From TrEMBL:
Domain BED-type as annotated: residue spans: 1-51
Top-rank taxon, per record: Eukaryota
Entries under SUPFAM superfamilies matching the protein: beta-beta-alpha zinc fingers, Hermes dimerisation domain, Ribonuclease H-like
Keyword Cell inner membrane belongs to the record: no
Protein name in the entry: BED-type domain-containing protein
InterPro entries found in the cross-reference section: RNaseH-like_sf, Znf_BED, ZnF_BED_domain_contain, Znf_C2H2_sf
GO molecular function: DNA binding; zinc ion binding
Species for this entry: Acyrthosiphon pisum (Pea aphid)
Record key words, sorted: Metal-binding, Transcription, Transcription regulation, Zinc, Zinc-finger
Pfam families named among the record's database cross-references: zf-BED
Length: 424
């Protein structure tokens, strides 16, 4: 019987249940108790937590009293906050100027974890840190409702009350956005010239966005960048709509499309090329995009594509069958090979295929035996031949290009010359 019935009683007709705490009648025609649990969660939080722990068999093993009077937890928390704040970027320190370590009075003079209270100023600091953590780590708002996170927070600071999801949504995150935007505005105000990069992408929820990044030389004459925004594109992605979106994003920072923009870098999409042309701003093609396109064209060559399709089909065997993974491990052990997994690959990231190629080549004896014998040889048509092996070994030289691509992404320093000198 569900623990929820400790707090509810069924009426005579069996279609409703009455809460023994507030005497409210709740619809409960069948055996489902979800609405009863929801009632407790919404109106009787303490009772809900108590019964929820009983339901899951969780004891109160997280009693923070064991930390009292030792000072260990307090000093650890103080050190953690201090070290974390020291690693913030200069921009973060401008957005969250009050995020220095909390007052020494809190951590050094208390004699018990339960003897101090959190002031309004301290709570605001902690709320800001939480909002920053959620934003920078892309955590969901409901993290504040999760029992483990609540227990962890209470262990660090028992008197601190976590903000609700509504507080985060309506106040803390919007305030953080406004403060961050003000920092970006101050940066742009002091720039006489800068360049832009922009690209369109689709989120996991299938919503289209346009992101715009500003690149500039800072006061120390070092290459730096800042994101101006990431705007959802509801309209069709025509050149006119894209150019309007770019202009509106710049107008949010009181910037016009003028000579202060040295150039805009994009990919080779016809719509974005026309959009930049409409703005009458110099356009520089994205070298990284061109580089990736050139490499992917190699994978489209007939003989290369044949070998690639074979190893894709081999990877699919192990991606959807745990039995095949078990049998593969047996073959790897028989040939005294390291039992490695076959990595997944991405259609848009050619370098992910290199990892799969290297695994296939290193496991070739065990793989050949597996394909010949597994399930009466139903996969033996996927075996790679000598020509395929030669092609795959040739493709492994692309590992140098992968290193080059990673080096190219180091946008705070000019890395190209350093890379080419290392090859000489």
């Amino acid at each position: 019987m569900s623990q929820v019935w400790d707090t509810f009683s069924k009426d005579e007709c069996g279609r409703r249940a009455t809460c023994t705490i507030c005497n409210k009648s709740i619809s409960n025609a069948g055996t489902n108790t979800t609405n009863l649990w929801n009632h407790l969660k919404g109106l009787h939080k303490a009772k809900f937590n108590e019964l929820d722990r009983l339901k899951r068999g969780v004891q109160n093993i997280f009693d923070t009293s064991e930390f009292e009077d030792t000072g260990t937890l307090s000093s650890t928390a103080s050190t953690l906050i201090a070290s974390t704040s020291s690693t913030y970027s200069s921009m973060t320190s401008q957005v969250l100027p009050a995020l220095e370590p909390l007052s020494d009075t809190i951590f050094n003079k208390q004699t018990s974890m339960k003897m101090f209270t959190t002031s309004q100023a301290t709570k605001l600091k902690l709320d800001k840190i939480l909002a920053y953590t959620i934003a920078i780590d892309m955590m969901p708002y409901n993290v504040v409702d999760r029992e483990g996170f609540q227990l962890y927070t209470r262990a660090l600071c028992p008197s601190y009350k976590l903000p609700s999801r509504r507080t985060l949504t309506d106040r803390r995150i919007p305030d953080l956005y406004k403060e961050t935007k003000m920092v970006v505005e101050n940066i742009l105000t002091n720039l006489s010239c800068f360049s832009l990069t922009t690209d369109c992408w689709t989120s996991v929820s299938n919503k289209p966005f346009m992101a715009v990044t500003c690149h500039y030389l800072n006061a120390e004459f070092k290459l730096d960048n800042v994101c101006l925004g990431c705007q959802e594109l509801i309209e069709n992605h025509t050149s006119e709509n894209l150019s309007d979106a770019l202009q509106l994003m710049l107008l949010e920072y009181n910037k016009d499309i003028d000579i202060c923009i040295g150039a805009i870098t994009t990919d080779y999409g016809a719509n974005i090329l026309k959009a930049v042309k409409n703005l009458d701003v110099p356009h520089i093609p994205c070298f990284g995009h061109s580089f990736n396109t050139a490499v992917k064209n190699v994978f489209k060559l007939k003989q290369v594509n044949t070998a690639i399709e074979k190893i894709k089909s081999i990877q699919n065997i192990f991606a959807y069958s745990w039995k095949s993974v078990r049998e593969k491990a047996i073959e790897q052990k028989r040939f005294d090979l390291k039992q490695v997994k076959f990595p997944s690959y991405s259609k848009t990231r050619w370098w992910s295929m290199l990892d799969l190629i290297l695994v296939v080549l290193s496991q070739e004896p065990a793989l050949a035996s597996f394909l010949r014998t597994y399930n009466n040889g139903c996969f033996k048509d996927r075996m790679i031949n000598e020509q395929d092996v030669t092609i795959l070994k040739t493709l492994t030289c692309f590992s140098l290009l992968e290193i080059y691509l990673i080096t190219l992404q180091g946008n705070h320093t000019l890395q190209l010359r350093r890379y080419f000198l290392s090859l000489v």
